[in-house]
Amino acid sequence: MGNDASRDATAATAPHPDFQLVQSSSEFRTLRKSHRSFVFPIAGAFLLWYFMYVLLADYAHDFMSIKVAGNINLGLILGLLQFVTTFGITAWYVSHANRKLDPAAESIRTEIEHHDFDNGTAAATGADAEGSTR
C-alpha cells in the first residue's frame, strides 16, 4: 500500500526486456523444442492409453470382467494403472526438467536479469545516470 508509489517509480525507470528478442534467441528456441519434444509425445501416448481404457470399459465388458484374483478383475487393474501411469509420467517429467529444461531456463533468466535482452540500452544508461546523480 504505502510502498506502491516507490515500487511503481522503480518499475517505470527500470529497463524492460525485449521478450520478442528473447523468444527469437537460439537458446529459447532450443529450450522450447526440448520441452515440446518431451511433452507432446508423452501427452499423446497418455491420452491414447486413457481413451483406450474408457472405450474398453464401455464396449468390452467381457474383457474388463475377466477375473484375475478373487473379486479383482482386469478393469480394476487397468483403472489403477491409470494412477500409476500418471505418477510415473510426472516423475519422468520432473527428472527431464531437472536435467535439461531447468538449466537452460536458468541461463535465459540470468541473461534477462543481467539486461542482455534490454529493450534499448539508452533507457538502462539513463536510469543509471539518474540513480548516480541522486
Automatic annotation (TrEMBL):
Where does the record place a coiled coil?
A: none
* A Pfam family assignment: DUF485
Xref: InterPro entries: DUF485
Q: Kindly list the residue ranges recorded as spanning the membrane.
A: 38-60, 72-94
> Which key words tag this protein in UniProt?
Membrane, Transmembrane, Transmembrane helix
* Protein name in UniProt: DUF485 domain-containing protein
Source organism of this protein record: Sinomonas cellulolyticus
